[in-house]
Structure formats: C-alpha cells, structure tokens
Amino acid sequence: MIHYSCESFYNIVDGRTPRVTSIAVRYLSSAQTKSFSIHKIAEVRGFSLEEIDLNYDSLEKEMLDEFFSFMEAHRTFSWIHWNMRDISYGFEALKHRAIVLGIRRPFELPDNVKFDLARILIDLYGKNYADHPRLPSLLKQNDILPKNWLDGEDEARAFEEKEFVKLHQSTLSKVSVFENILVLIAENRLKNKSSFADRNGIGPQAVYESIKDHWLFVLVSLIVGAILSSFIGYII
After folding, report:
1. pTM for this model (two decimals)
2. Which of 14, 60, 135, 219 has its CA 20 to 30 A from that of 142?
C-alpha cells in the first residue's frame, strides 16, 4: 500500500506541481510501514522544524531520491494505492517533482504492478457502493475510526501552518486504513450501499459465480489470503 501527502493543489495558482511532504508504504505481509518525510530528513541534517521551509527544496529532493531508490528495489511488488493516477496526484506527480528538483531519470514503476483500490471497489461493488466523498463514507459504514486522519481541507491547513509531523501521521494512518479495507474485501465483510442483485437483477449465488474468476477479485483474495494466516492484528 502506498499513499503520500502534499501541498494542496487547489491553492496553487502558478501551475506548478504540489510539494510533497511525506510518503508511506505499508507491507501487507508484515504490516510494517516504511516512511519518507521531509521532517525526518531535516532532523538527520540538524534542521529545526522552523528551518524546514527555508530548505524545503533540498529536503524534498533528498526524500524523493530515497523513495525512488526504495521503489526501484521493490519494482516487482504489487503497489496498491488510492487514486494515484495522474500528474495532479499520483506516481506521475512524484516523478515530475523529482525531475523538477534535479533528480535525473527517477525510476518509473511499471503500470502492471499498480492497482487502484478506488477503482477495484467500483469494479467489485459498483459506483454506488458509498456516498460521495466515497472513502470517508465507506469508513463510516464500516465503523473504521482511524487515528490522526486528516481530510483534504485539514491537510491543506496543516501544510500552510507547517505542521509536517501531523501530515506524516495522517499519511501513515491512510495506508493502514487501505489495508483494513482490503482485508474486509477478502473476508467478504465490507459493508457498502451497492447490491449486485439490485444492479444486475440476479441472485447472490449467480453474482458470486460471475465475479469469482474476475482478476480483481482473485488479486485481492490472493494478496490478503496469503497473509491472513500470520496476520494477527493491526492498529489504525
């Protein structure tokens, strides 16, 4: 699972891509999380939190350089994300930021190992599986109460107020939430507002037979099924 936090693109008027503040990658097999953040880089380099803004470009460049090296080393892994699809927010945005900051030829992850959880949910349950915005609605339906979660407006405010630690904690929280959703899908326990019978006019057993061989259903089942035997628990 991967997620990242960045400057709000809604507040940018000069057309540049948003600055990245932190990235979190969570291993489904062990529930361990690898994180990259400007405030961690700043601490290693001896900068105070107040000095981050004055050295942002160099800190962001070092963070992204570290991340792309990590990504290249894990290029054969399955990378599950939420709407990381374009230059506004996604792998392309991270790559562009790296190039802008002077990183030559950052590693490009193959598309065949990227899986968008937001699209997987639509393919499995239909567009009406949750109210808009879908992710917060889905969490509410399933009684998932994540710690340190910031919505888009709160993240924008945190960036403006230079609360980089808070942004990092929110990023960590979100990859944990995505893992939680995957487990619920695999166990067929994800509560949602969409019904296969309602959408297709067929019964539950027929629906199961029609989707059990779907590559998305198989992918999620394999990924989570492989870890459930050793998966003890997780904290959100």
Report:
1. 0.83
2. 219
